[in-house]
Structure formats: structure tokens, C-alpha cells
Fold this protein.
Amino acid sequence: MTPPTTTPATTTPARPGTFVPAPGAAPIARQVLTQASMEARLMLRNGEQLLLAVVIPVIVLLVGVRGAERVDLEYGVETFAPGVLALAVMSTSFTALAIATGFERRYGLIKRLGTSPLSRTSLLGAKVLALLVVEVLQVVVIGAVALALGWEPDASVVGLLLTVVLGTSAFASLGLLLAGSLRAEATLAAANLVYLLLMAGGAVVLPASAYGSFGDVVAWLPSGALGEAMRSALDGAAVAWRDLLVLAGWTLVGAAATARTFKWE
Amino acid sequence: MSEPLSVGGADSLADGAVTVDGLVMRYGDKVAVDGLSLSVEAHTITAVLGPNGAGKTTTLETCEGYRTPQRGTVRVLGLDPVRDRRALLPRIGVMLQSGGAWGGVRAVEMLRHVSRLHARPLPVDMLVERLGLADCGRTPYRRLSGGQQQRLGLAMAIVGRPELVFVDEPTAGLDPAVRRTVWELLEELRTDGVTVVLTTHYMDEAERLADRVHILDKGTLVASGSPLELTRGGSVATIRLVVTQPFPPGAPASLTAALGPATEVTQLDAVSLLVTGPADGSTLAKVSRWCEAHDVLPESLTLGQRKLEDVFLELTALPETT
């Protein structure tokens, strides 16, 4: 064992020349990866975020499947599994991202990064990458639980990938819109409220057809489009172009509004 | 607007590490910076002083590229901080007054993160040791003390081996030993060729560290020079007079009359006065004769150089505390 290092906070001057300037930005790929891995780690380290990302979706899946069996509902695990995966994508790319970004603004982190070599484009890229990393973990955990419940997916890999990517971009742009214009506490409250409302009434977990005539409306919501696209991809191996187009539309609307309103501090 | 008091060599706007020329910044009706021109020589420590609202932070943030000049020009290392932002940012380090990290990130983790965004960073362990951050290395940022956050902020500003660092009140709230550590670090940076621009409220900090001081007030430059040049201020000295019993009423006026128009008398409290005037022996003798004539018993009579603080207070005309 090495002896304990009790170096006091004092004043051994460094060798002359230690601080001679040698400025330079790291390669952009390394900057983005550094930032993305930090953001993903912080997201997974945070208890509330983990609750939102994994625990709540798994509970919804278990309660939904078991509950439906008991009351003889027409929906089984083949409906709930894609619905809960859509819920997981929504919780990460919307709620978690909005809350994290809101507090980053509050704590001056975004201002601080504004004078680092990391550009705003790279920062956004890193955020998306971090979201995708967390979503892969979510898909693995939730998928495993669903398989254990007897799920036999009939999947289109292309449909799944397009759904995750477009769902993430649509909700991320809306999450950033929220985080960039409200105070951190207001963002926290609004992001959670919207999440609960969409979980209950947004055709994420259950198909739009379960909502009766109201279903025609909710299918146009980003939550409805994400849920429908996910069910098409995993329960019927189809690519739901209409729903993907709706998600792309929300992405454009959200990104344009965010670009106009986002305040970095 | 009066002409800034400039002592020492004339500023060359052409080849400074930072040049600000005719900068104007307004927020609504409020003028934050009002035609400011100043320059910072490379490889020096330059202090920017001024009362709250003098325009220090606005000026600094314009140099850092956060704000676009509404009028005038700003050049940092010869670059336009807004237009050439991407080229400039890796070459400068910025220490914010507060914040700048995630709440849940550990101190050393944050520093390592910032270091990885740079091409040739300083060794993180060395900085951690130099700034006494080892003990709190695994503490989440939000649980760090103000002083620890401050030191981490400084470490983040210099880890990328910048040519120029902007430090905003680097030792606010630090205990004396840690302040000294920070001062020594800033001096080492200068020795190694880094240009340091700092804002501070501590006059002793500017006096000890700065090669050059710019004093701002109401968005303009009111004085600039080395601390020595500013405090010498011609042949002005101060005499501090402390007496055993409270002064009789009208004492400042009668003392001013006795000393002549070149001197200025400020009553500091019931038993002490500050005389600012020509630094010669006769002033001291006159003060002593005045005491005798007015039956005032001096407890102490001290002749002193002006401190930078005196210059600062005179120039920025803060409300007098009498």
C-alpha cells in the first residue's frame, strides 16, 4: 500500500514551464464521446431518473400484463411490450432530458461549456448520443422482462430503429423547448405532468383504437404516433410510415421553436 | 465624462492580448458600458476594478464572446470573440463567478471531463494537488463548499493550457491561506507566459498581483496604470489623525482652513480624521499645531502612502461613510 498522501493545500510551486500555454481543442469525435458518456453516466447515476427510465416502465408492463389477464382484457404482452418501450423512449428523451437541461441552465453548466472547445452542435449531438445509450439499456431491460412474461415479438428491425430515432428526436426537441424557456423548477413540474398525462391519455401504452373516437386525435400527438409506430414495428413487423412522418413533423416544429426560444443561461 | 487618468506608458491598441475600443453596451435604457477603451498587454496580470454595476462583467463577457458589442470593437488574441469564436475558445480559459458544473458530478470527475475537451491538457492530478482539491475529489459538486467550487472553477479555467485566462473574482470567500495559494498559482501562470485578466473587489489582491490596473466606473475607464503609479498619484500622501476625545464640532472645516486649499479633510468617525494632501513635513507640523490650538490631544498621527483603495474610492465616488 502506498502511504497516505496528506499533501496540504499549499504551495509547492510547479516546475517552471508547467503552465506554458499549449492550447488546442480535442478532436471533435473525442469531445462528443466525452460529453455523451458523462451525460449518460450522470443520467444513470441519478435515482429519480433511473426510476423514470426503467422502474416505472417495468411496473407498468407487469401490472398491465397481469392485470389484463385477470380482467380478461383483449390486450396481452404483445401490445403492452411495445407500448412500454415507447413509454420508456418518451420518459428518457422528453422528461429526463428536459429536467437535466433545465438544471444545467440553472447551474451555469451550459454557460461554462459555452467557453469550452465543445460547440453547441457537438453538445446537442452528445445529448442525443447519451439518450440513445440510455434507451439501449432500457430496451434490453424492458425487453428481457417482456420475454420472461412470454412475449414473442414479430419485429421489423428497420421499423424499430426508425421509431426509436424519430421518437427520440421529436420528444427531445419538445423537451429542449420546455427546458430552454422555463425556469428549472417549472420545467421539472411541467415535464412530469406532461409525461403523466401522455402516459394515461396519449396512446403510448395502449393503442389509439382503445380511446374510441378520441383515438383519431391522439394518433396525431407525438405520443400516439410513437406508440403506434412501435406497435407496428414489434407486433406485425411493419414500418408505420404515417406515424413516422407525424414524428418527423413534431421534430421540425419542436426544433424550430427551440431554436427561436432557447436561452442558454 | 472626464478624461481617464492614465499614468505610465500609453496603451497601444494594436498589439495587446485584449483590446477594447469604444465599446458601448446597453440593456434597455441602462447603459452598462459607455464607450470603453482599454487594452491588456500579453504576459501580464491585469486587474479590472470597479464598483458593482461599473460594467466589469459585461466587458468581460463581451471579450469571452457571450455578448456581441453593440458599438465599438473587441479583439482577444487578435480575434473577434463572436465571429472567430471557434478559433478563439480553445486558446482562452474562463473562470465564472459561480456554477459551471452539474450538481451530481464529482469534483475531480468534472475537472477530468473538461480536460478531455482539450488537446494537451495539464495533468489533472497536479492541479488537484496544487489547489487542494484532493480531499473533496469524490464529493458531488453541489456539496462542495463555496471555496472548493471556486478553486475547481479556477482549475477548469486553466486545465486546457490557455494563452489567456479571464478570472472573475478568483478569491471571493476564500480563507487567507487558500487565497495565497491562488495568488501564487496566478503568478506562476504569468511567469510561464499566460496572460491573466482578473476582476476583483479586493484592493490588496490587485495591489499584490497586478502589473496593471484598470479602474472602471459607470461604464468608462477612469484610471489605469501600475498599482505603484496609481497610488503614487503625484505627491499626495495621507495623514491619519486619531484623538483621545471626540473632535469639537466643525473640526474638519477648521482644519481644512488651517492647512490650505490643496488638502482635503475627511472625518472617518468621532475620533479620527483623514487628511489627504501634499506630502511634505509642513503639513504634519500644521496638523500638530492645529491640535494644540484646539485643545485636542492626538493619540496617534500616522503619515502614509495612499493605498489603491483610496484611489479607487476617490475615482469612483462612492457615497462617503462619515
Summary: Chain B touches chain A through 51 residues (CB under 8 Å). The longest helix of chain B spans residues 176-191.
